[in-house]
Amino acid sequence: MKLYAFFIFINSLVYGQDLSLLRNNLSKAPDNKKICKTMIDSITTTKDPVYLAYLGAYQTILANHVINPISKLSTFNKGKKNIENAFLLDQNNIEIRLIRYSIQNNAPKFLGYSSELIRDKNFIERNYQDVKSIELKELINSVL
Fold first, then answer.
1. What is the torsional sign of CA 96, 109, 107, 124?
2. CATH of domain 2-143
């Protein structure tokens, strides 16, 4: 039993560190293609909804670094799909809502990816007080 608890503890530490890196690099990715690609490569095989949302976010941001218009749209749509799949897996997760809000708020309007802006912002504002992570609260404050 103690061994099981130890593995849970270690897993939460590793998970937290990875999440911290994803959070911190999100604001740097629009200006840095290498960071964007590195983050995508580090989370490509994830099944965790929060990580899937970050994967989608980094993919949509990577579209800014792609030159070919067809590839640009394809990259953006792949990221959008991952964000929406993450949302379907965990609709009450404030971090997933924040990621979707941030991407929709910054996406070019002609892409038509802005339908949940108001709902997500309201959800985030309503549930902000329940967030325990100082780092996540800082991210929320920087996005809203």
1. negative
2. 1.25.40
